[in-house]
Amino acid sequence: MSVLVVGASAAGLTTVEALRRKGYREPITVLGAEWHPPYDRPPLSKQFLCGDWDEARTRLRPDTMLSALDAEFVLGDSAVSLDADRKLVQTAAGRSLTADAVVIATGLTPRSLPGPDLQGVHVLRTLDDAAALRKDLVESERLVVVGDGVLGAEVAATARRLGLAVTLAGPQATPLEAQLGPTVGGLLSELHRAQGVDLRLGAAVTGLRAVDGRVSGVQLADGDVLPADVVVVALGAAPATEWLEGSGLRLDNGVVCDANCRAADGIYAAGDVARWQHDDSLVRLENRTNATEQAICVAGNILGDHQPYRPIPYFWTDQFAVKIQVHGRPSADAEVTVAEGNVADGRFIAHYHRDGRLVAVLGWNLPKQTRVHREHLVRA
Amino acid sequence: MKIIVDQDKCVASGQCVTAAADVFDQRDEDGIVVLLTDNPPEDLAADVHQAAAVCPALAIVVED
User: Fold this and answer.
1) 4Fe-4S ferredoxin-type domain: which residues (chain B) (predicted)?
2) What's the complex ipTM?
3) Domain over B2-63 is classified CATH 3.40.350.10
């Protein structure tokens, strides 16, 4: 038996590590679109962007550990098509790769704003994106972040640390409101304002202004223009499935999989790109922990475990001196109550209830206790 | 078995404690990983490897 993993980021690498740990000794090939060996993404908007970590520190594993996996890493080449019946992947460089099992872990492609390419406009997904953004930030004075989700809020916080004047613009009434609701979103608004971020929330961005091919501002629907030397577009991302058009797999906001993360016979998906059957609905999660946990499940299922993937989702975000940790599946319409600590002290745990049932716990600067509260979710 | 933790990389998720509470703990103030023993008994090996695998920062290395 042989395994081909398409994607060399957290989900791809974890699949390989889990296969080896479970005793699989046969050939593994890993195809990565970037030249970089596997690196971690959460630090890109934080430790790497602010300059605390260099590129080497973002590596997921050192060379010695990668070599010990005895897998062939094919880097700097991307998949352009899959024939699901033959389990045949063609690459941009003209390679034809086949295996008995194929794992799709190609992640996400960030959304951009329509219009011509302008200097000073960035998205943040890859290490190269982050390096280019950092270079621009340290030479600039005014940043506008377009997008008020996790990534946008983290970039805004990091840029403030770097001393830039920062405006955070987005369609929601408060940052992260769609994920965490208005109560926590309101606290995030207060946090960012207290740290000097100019919030332009509830604002529709209609376009960019430019001078000589370089961005000069962000145009809002109400007519205002936010002046900018640098703009970060953080409007979310789409599953990287274009290469799978015509593969025979079902694509619908990701690679659609059964409960065991299997997209077709011998074909699996893991990480941001995978949308799998979880209870009554199809679920796709974009977070770092899911990449690992889903990849471990997939590795087991390749080896015959027949295990459904049933995680308690977990994500975290660090903004200024605040660490927010979320277990479960919160939603904007859930009822939020403080279960430990208090908001005024800046250290608390909130419970999210929907239809009378506990669906998520959120910790605000209380990491150890947040893990303890996760147990309530396990029981619920 | 020898365990090495990188407290600078640690993101305080506590996943390691959930996997192997006899080996890992978190600091009270910031949740950063604390190693209770760097050479645990062999019967905890599976739990320790699981902890290293699920760490979302890959901040735990286990040397057999």
Assistant:
1) 1-29
2) 0.95
3) no
